Amino acid sequence: MSLTFIKELGSDHILGCWTIHEDLAELQNNLLEADKSHYHRQGQWSERRKKEWLATRMLLRNMLPSSPQILYDRTGKPGLSQNEYNISISHSSLMVALVLCKNKAVGVDIQEIRNSVIPGRDFFCNEAEQQWLDPHDRLQLNLVWSAKEAVYKCYGNARLIFRDQIEICPFSMEQSGQLSAYIYDSGDRHCLPITYEILSSYVLTYTHSLIPST
User: What is the pTM of this model?
Assistant: First the structure.
């Protein structure tokens, strides 16, 4: 089993990470009966995609022994069959991350640290951010990209534009810490707190809404 960690972030808030070291057959052998029909309909998936899907459900079973199914609405947003927790999912290379919260919307993102964010920074960083960002610091840029992904998932507006509508406030880079993001939507400005961790060659970010979900 490649459970990396599970953290209780509060009485109703759980974070988990899984590192995929298993081969496909091992993951398939642990598939619950309730998930088999959906999995076997995805024959066109790549082996990597299948491993991500299976490892996500292995991680969820370790976080919630009741083993709810992951369901998706028509926009692709995940939910749980028992409807007790809000859920957000992310995967990158060998890592899978999940965050659960009972009464607030959540967002999580994990990113393998890559050089491609350096030439691509104009796509997701606005002018204000580029005033304080180091254009050659790939760790910092990967963290900003990941933070915006987590905010996007939490906020739940599929039309939100990363560069123009999500702004990360200046922060000092540490091994772990917190930063803030502003969301500009329909003339309003909302602030979300984001927690981050550097996990070897990955960055992990997660956030939650400040008001209860309905």
Answer: 0.93
